[in-house]
Design a protein that fits this description.
alpha/beta, 9-stranded mixed β-sheet, 3-stranded mixed β-sheet
Length: 339
């Protein structure tokens, strides 16, 4: 049995797998490659059987979304490390060994990711994960190499291993022991923010997360819900608020939620005024409404996270507002921020 299982959760991604799976097979000899199919209704399973007959396939009975789909699949895989990989990721030769070597020599690290660059512009970081993720105090995610819509060129400015708050779900290596001890991905999220939520819980447990600079992968991005899709906007707002409710300490929760109420209404009206779409405006309002409707379903989660909490001192949570730093102060690059 191999030490690492690369698990690609697929939903109607036959074209992506035809294009990018050969690079994963050709450059990942250290790992077993497994496709977990989330009840696709395209020709994914037929294509895998015909073109990649040696690849192990786990077939799920319905589309459980990203979070619960991975939970269902990973329960059927017995290995020391899981590597969650999107179907639209291309990997070069030698990409995997640096992450394995780092994890093996750093037992206090639970999760790592490579630098993620864009397939469409290989000299630039990719939006979804860049060189590792962070949050500001109000729950807004950003990365080394990407703040909001400003994506940096990869000019070697982040060519050192760095401790981060969250690793991208597009390409995340995690110890199976840590995955399950933290409770896995929260299946109720369906998709979006679920990897940030998991990583935050892992950090609260006192475990570490890193970006490994001498490993690189290339991500197409966009996925099944492209940017600007109201469904994606809804999931992002609902899930982000839920993540804050689950993980913030009591001393911060009310203050942060009051500010988020103001910021979310501001964002909604900005979308409407700027003509982005009435659908996105409604999606923000619906996201807040659905959060308020279900938040007490997560009270047991808050108690459990509080019980396992070993630290509230997480330097990778920016103590200021990234919105203020970016829009008011013009700090568009990660290296411009003063942590």
């Amino acid at each position: 049995m191999k030490q690492v299982a690369i698990v690609i959760l697929n939903w109607n991604g036959a074209h992506m797998m035809r294009t990018y799976l050969p690079t994963v097979i050709g450059h990942s000899e250290e790992a077993e490659i497994i496709i977990a199919d989330n009840a696709s209704d395209d020709d994914s399973l037929k294509m895998l059987e015909t073109d990649f007959p040696a690849i192990r396939t786990i077939v799920l009975d319905k589309n459980y979304g990203f979070a619960e789909g991975y939970n269902k699949a990973l329960k059927q895989i017995d290995t020391e490390y899981y590597l969650l990989l999107n179907s639209d990721v291309e990997v070069p030769e030698g990409w995997l060994a640096p992450m394995i070597e780092f994890m093996e020599s750093h037992p206090d690290v639970a999760v790592c990711q490579p630098k993620l660059c864009a397939i469409t512009d290989r000299e630039s970081f990719e939006y979804a994960g860049a060189a590792g993720g962070y949050l500001d105090r109000y729950g807004y995610p950003f990365c080394r190499g990407r703040i909001f819509d400003t994506v940096e060129k990869d000019e070697g400015q982040y060519d050192e291993n760095a401790e981060i708050l969250w690793a991208t779900g597009a390409c995340m290596m995690i110890r199976s022991k840590d995955y399950w001890e933290a409770g896995g991905l929260d299946g109720r999220f369906f998709a979006h923010n679920e990897e940030i939520d998991l990583c935050w819980r892992i950090r609260l447990m006192g475990r570490k997360i890193y970006c490994i600079s001498n490993s690189i992968a290339y991500h197409l991005g966009g996925g099944t819900l492209p940017k600007g899709n109201p469904r994606k906007t809804f999931l992002n707002f609902r899930n982000n608020l839920t993540m804050l409710y689950k993980n913030l300490p009591e001393s911060e929760l009310k203050k942060v939620m009051r500010m988020r109420l103001f910021l979310d209404w501001l964002a909604a009206f900005q979308m409407l005024i700027l003509g982005r779409s009435y659908g996105d405006f409604k999606a923000v309002i619906r996201g807040r409404k659905e959060f308020n409707k279900w938040k007490h379903d997560f009270d047991k989660d808050r108690k459990r996270i509080k019980a396992m909490r070993k630290t509230d001192d997480i330097p990778q949570i920016f103590s200021k507002s990234i919105l203020w730093e970016y829009y008011a102060k013009g700090k568009k690059r990660f290296r411009d921020l003063a942590f």
